[in-house]
Amino acid sequence: MEATRRRRMEPDSRRGEILTVAVRLFGQRPYSEVSTTDVARAAGVARGLVNHYFGTKKDLYLEVVRVMLTVPAVALEQVRRDDPLERRVDTIVSWFLDVVSRHSTSWLAAVNAGGIAGDAEVDGVIAEAIDVAAVGVLGAVGLGESPSEALRGMARSYVGLAVFTGREWLQRGVLSREQVHALLKTSLLAMVEEVFPQAV
Amino acid sequence: MEATRRRRMEPDSRRGEILTVAVRLFGQRPYSEVSTTDVARAAGVARGLVNHYFGTKKDLYLEVVRVMLTVPAVALEQVRRDDPLERRVDTIVSWFLDVVSRHSTSWLAAVNAGGIAGDAEVDGVIAEAIDVAAVGVLGAVGLGESPSEALRGMARSYVGLAVFTGREWLQRGVLSREQVHALLKTSLLAMVEEVFPQAV
DNA sequence: ATCGCTATTGGCGATGTGTCAATAAGTGGC
DNA sequence: GCCACTTATTGACACATCGCCAATAGCGAT
Description:
Structural class of chain A: mainly alpha
Largest interface: A-B, 47 and 47 residues
Oligomer: homodimer
Number of helices of chain A: 9
Helix content of chain A: 55-70%
Radius of gyration of chain A: 20 Å
Number of strands of chain A: 0
Largest sheet of chain A: none
């Protein structure tokens, strides 16, 4: 059994190939239990090549997390701006639950990644994704124009609730989708009507 | 300069000494950047001894996280059961913010610990702490007697919001304590009055 | 003093990671 | 078709960390 011979590829293609494999592996087991050797072997490549394209293992992981978080971050611009507030909130929550449940595995992996025990860079990537989602929510709710720092902070808190609740929903399975929906909807409504006004 | 000679101690004392040092170190830098050698050296002990007392490095880390989470988990039984709901909620939130801000460093470290990128055991420890806090909240709110699984799940979601918001507050510093207080208070009120009833 | 228990040490083997010179797969020139 | 020439790819070296275990040496008991 002759292992497939060395094949030369375009750098971009090879890079993408390795990255795809890495996303799969890091989606299955935690960071510390995936070695660069594993990634290399699964990609049919020498280990040195992984370092060549991605630098350090953590750098590779950063790209992996970015890829995983890219999907859920797609725009929620489709919220009709002239709908009443409750309807808009309802749409936002529904859309969030749809996306999360569809890409559940990779989304869970990315969220659970929650940092290599507080690693600054990984946390930065996740924090940024949360911030993006936060301004998205603000925009969809109608407070999008130049939100204050405090308002963004509050919106990030809500996104944190959504993320955590999504995990609770998908991983534990003790909550029904309707219950999760109600929880996120009334929470967001309460915040928009009673809390956000305090932050300009 | 003669390094202090080998000193023989009671196993419990030595164990506690090492654990204390480990809590400090893991509170300063992330998991992967603290080697057992570091812990051993800081404790003035051979590296082998760390393994002898705690087994694997992750086992040591598990104990560290448990210690860090122990403080915030102290009882919030002091909520007066005959107060009106809003007053009780207010007390709970105040107490939470007090505890969190007082032990901010170790609390942040424990929360940020959020898992070695999804490590099952570490996540388990944190999840358990959150569950304990959740039933505490339910008890303080007046729904403590035999809460259903779904109700506990919802309460866990709220604790997740509190944890995340606490992080947002302490780490970013863009929200004032009053704002955080308002956010957590109205959220909990809304959940108790409108969402929790759906789960028995 | 010395004996015995065991807390403590130090080193071995295995595994993982980053780096770099050596190699060979393609591509274009002739 | 053959031969450079570029560079994608490899393999190995050096180093760090971890788990383990036999050997060592505190310290109380006799």
